[in-house]
Specification:
433 residues; 16 helices; globular
Length: 433
């Protein structure tokens, strides 16, 4: 006698944890503050002196973004992804899905990887994160059932490895700049460069060219060409990131936060179940530690006139700053969720969070039509602070459009497609009357 095959449906709206949806909405909007710099300016994501302006309001915008948002929004995005995949598997296993749970889980990640490739190569966002999340999601599967204390230990271990790698890179950069100075001395004295120094000279000239007004102008020109020309122009960058970032950054940056997120969820911190006092202490301590370190990094970078070594040195303490600030954000967001205030805003943010995949990709669609030659071709024409007007416009649109969409439909468009592909079954999209 054969046992009838069970049908495993996606999570119902009534079963969702609102605090996670609100937090996801906040983070989804917040990450655009950082991403917009890469979407609209050449080489200006980290260094404001390259393009977009580094004085006045432009400098203030850079300082504020790096003080409170750089690394922290991505950290929280990673944290929430890890929690989402844990809840996904835990729910299926409790329903007795057995091996089907793993099939659905890995099929879900494979399709996310495909979405990431489309997002990067065809929607023209080289900073996209879905591809990396899919790869790290495969590793999350093996760690998900560890107790929270062990998950936290593994996360700290990964953070530490990343910091050591950053320190090793800093030492290499010191040697590199010493060789650059030696090259300048040799050239002024008319001495012949060794083969190693010749290679360093070529690398340094390429770096200078990319940061020069001529290099920026050439990059801007390429980004303003037709759609297929921009696809071809950005393809090597996408390939480089997809090949190198998983082992150089994602294991220590993304996977670590996914595991920490699962630990915080198991401790019932992310469901807003703790006391007001707990979250207030969490926010205050996280901000005190993290913002202090961020301030020191920003001050050092500016004191050293935005030099290569100043950025490289700041990377050593990068996680010591961004992770506590991210924890502070968690405490502040959970306080916001618990307080009986601004219910309309909470509802809008939760709607944005429920459609996180659609809204995240929508950022790139807006950017493609605003900045590249596929649309208005405005790449490189905005100053850094002016890009915030684009950010605020997208925020307003998504805060209004997401609740309206979910009033009539159960899922966001991409969420619906992703679910159908994951479960190999077409789910109803429209809400019943």
């Amino acid at each position: 006698m054969t046992t009838p095959k069970k049908s495993f449906a996606p999570l119902k709206s009534s079963d969702r944890i609102q605090s996670l949806d609100i937090m996801r909405g906040v983070v989804l909007l917040g990450i655009l503050i950082m991403n917009i710099n890469g979407m609209g300016l050449a080489g200006a994501y980290g260094d404001p002196t390259v393009s977009g302006g580094s004085t006045g309001w432009n400098l203030t915008t850079w300082i504020t973004a790096n003080f409170a948002f750089e690394g922290t929004m991505r950290a929280l995005f990673s944290l929430l992804f890890g929690v989402g995949m844990f809840i996904f598997m835990d729910r299926l296993e409790k329903k007795g899905a057995g091996i089907d749970a793993a099939n659905i889980y890995f099929r879900r990640l494979i399709w996310l990887l495909v979405f990431g490739l489309i997002h990067g190569y065809l929607l023209l966002w080289t900073g996209e994160i879905l591809y990396q999340y899919a790869l790290m999601g495969f590793l999350v599967f093996s760690f998900r059932n560890l107790p929270p204390i062990k998950l936290s230990f593994v996360a700290v271990l990964l953070f530490s490895i990343g910091a050591l790698w950053n320190y090793a890179d800093y030492k290499k950069d010191i040697k590199f700049m010493e060789e650059v100075a030696l090259i300048e001395t040799f050239e002024s004295e008319g001495k012949t460069l060794s083969r190693d120094l010749q290679e360093v000279a070529v690398e340094w000239k390429n770096m200078e060219w990319e940061r020069s007004p001529e290099g920026i102008a050439e990059y801007n020109s390429n980004m303003r060409k037709g759609y297929f020309e921009v696809v071809a122009f950005l393809a090597p960058q996408n390939q480089h990131f997809d090949e190198n970032w998983p082992y150089r950054y994602d294991l220590w940056d993304v996977l670590s936060m996914m595991l920490l997120g699962i630990a915080l969820f198991k401790w019932k911190i992310l469901s807003a179940d703790k006391s007001y006092k707990f979250y207030a202490i969490m926010a205050a301590s996280g901000y005190l530690i993290g913002l202090s370190i961020n301030y020191h990094e920003i001050y050092s970078i500016m004191e050293e006139d935005f030099s290569l070594l100043s950025f490289s040195k700041a990377n050593i303490t990068y996680d010591l700053g961004r992770v506590p600030v991210a924890i502070g954000h968690v405490g502040a967001i959970m306080l916001f969720c618990k307080l009986p205030l601004l219910r309309w805003l909470k509802g809008s943010l939760a709607a944005v969070g429920k459609m996180a995949l659609t809204n995240y990709v929508m950022h790139s669609v807006f950017a493609m039509f605003i900045f590249t030659g596929a649309g208005f071709g405005l790449f490189g024409t905005f100053e850094r602070f002016e890009l915030l007007y684009v950010v605020f416009g997208i925020w307003i649109f998504q805060l209004i459009a997401s609740p309206i969409w979910l009033k009539y439909y159960q899922y966001g468009p991409l969420e619906w497609i992703w679910r159908n592909l994951s479960y190999l079954k077409k789910h109803p999209l429209r809400r019943r009357s």
